[in-house]
Design brief:
Low-confidence stretches: none
Oligomer: single chain
Strand order of the largest sheet: 1-2
Largest sheet: 2 strands, parallel
Number of strands: 2
Number of helices: 4
Distance between the termini: 13 Å
Length: about 120
């Protein structure tokens, strides 16, 4: 969704999620939902349906951060060493650009380490 700091998200939960959406979770940066493993279509569909919905207060999302976590957390995501990696990203918003974090006082570049579900 996004970095869980102002100005990307709000401390007032109603600003992050519409009141009409009672299933909206607090904002999060990246949540690992399903390890790559032999799963059948029913299990995969259920994992997608169980993924928490969340909101934020600005239009861009942290999808590039999520892509980075998907790539660097090899063991926890379940990438096989000799497999061709293919990632499909579906979102309804643009992504944050490098250095957008300055708006929240985040100055160092991403450390490139695994931070799943932190």
């Amino acid at each position: 969704i996004d970095k869980n700091v102002p100005p990307f998200t709000s401390a007032v939960s109603e600003f992050n999620c519409a009141k009409e959406n009672p299933n909206c979770s607090p904002p999060y940066s990246f949540y690992h939902q399903q390890k790559l493993a032999p799963v059948n279509a029913k299990q995969f569909i259920q994992s997608v349906l169980d993924a928490p919905l969340a909101g934020n207060v600005d239009d861009p999302e942290g999808s590039l951060d999520a892509l980075l976590q998907t790539m660097v957390c090899r063991d926890r995501v379940g990438w096989r060493d000799n497999a061709r990696k293919l990632i499909l990203l579906f979102t309804d918003r643009d992504f944050h650009f490098a250095m957008d974090g300055k708006l929240a006082g985040i100055l160092p570049a991403n450390d490139g380490k695994c931070h799943l579900n932190d």
